């Protein structure tokens, strides 16, 4: 990698796709989950804040910063459920990793694909601690951009090999099934959410709608099930009926953010929840028995993106899959920024005088 601090490695969408395919999607998901877990295990060393959201009637734009004291990371991400109707992604993202010592960025990368990977990896990681033992079947309700990444993460980390897909739009389910064909899944496309959850030990909800939706009603959730609720991640945007929450043991990433954005926005501000890092560090119990309903109320937290940025940075030297970006001004004399500009003007002016 470049030794020049002013030149920042940049991972474009093209490089990210090559990186994921070079490593292999399932290996990438497994290794990424390892980085995410490593950072959950040192949760207390992170600077944490609920993400900074700017809401509009159409969607939300968010900044997600965190630091472990050595490195600082942030992600820019949007959520616009109406975008797919206009041929655009619901969620797009990019992010930066920086050196705390100098404040200089060390990596700029696309994070639209990386977000889907880290969300799948985080969901599967949480399920490793919470899902019923030996689970093989997962229902996925909402078969859009995130869905295949969820499926593959659960296959890699938990051995899920039976999928029951449902989407309001049947073409999304057919797309998901087609993309996952030949990847070791037995896939059933269902015609309702009720049908999708039949026999599923894990239920993933990953729909996009800017409203209080009821993707799961109380009668759809039997005892012993693990719910991976991914799509409810904004104020006024939830997927589960409140009664399900009252019957579940609820696990969250960072309570101050989840209370604003997660399914638990439907509950009292002091409703008990368990933080995932406490389960991972044996400070709190995860699944206690086979009858318990566990709910991972996922909203996506900044440390997960930090882990993803760390992981990508660690792959660059071996793969060379990045470009060098002339991002930071680098005058010969640090205080002579204006002089650098003047010298550039002379350099630009000279060829013009020659013509
Ligand atoms: N928790 C996290 O960390 C995290 C990370 C990324 C995305 N998300 C959220 O996940 C959701 C899905 O993201 P995406 O990129 O896959 O979106 P997408 O628009 O590509 O797909 C969403 C799918 O949900 C379907 N859908 C909408 N309402 C439905 C309903 N009532 N029943 C069944 N299907 C329905 C749509 O037809 C669409 O196919 C979004 O809400 C996004 O904000 C959460």
Automatic annotation (TrEMBL):
Q: Which InterPro entries match?
A: NAD(P)-bd_dom_sf, ODC_Mu_crystall, ODC_N
What's the domain of life for this entry? Answer: Bacteria
**Family (UniProt):** Belongs to the ornithine cyclodeaminase/mu-crystallin family.
Name this protein carries in UniProt:
Ornithine cyclodeaminase
Species per Swiss-Prot/TrEMBL record: Manganibacter manganicus
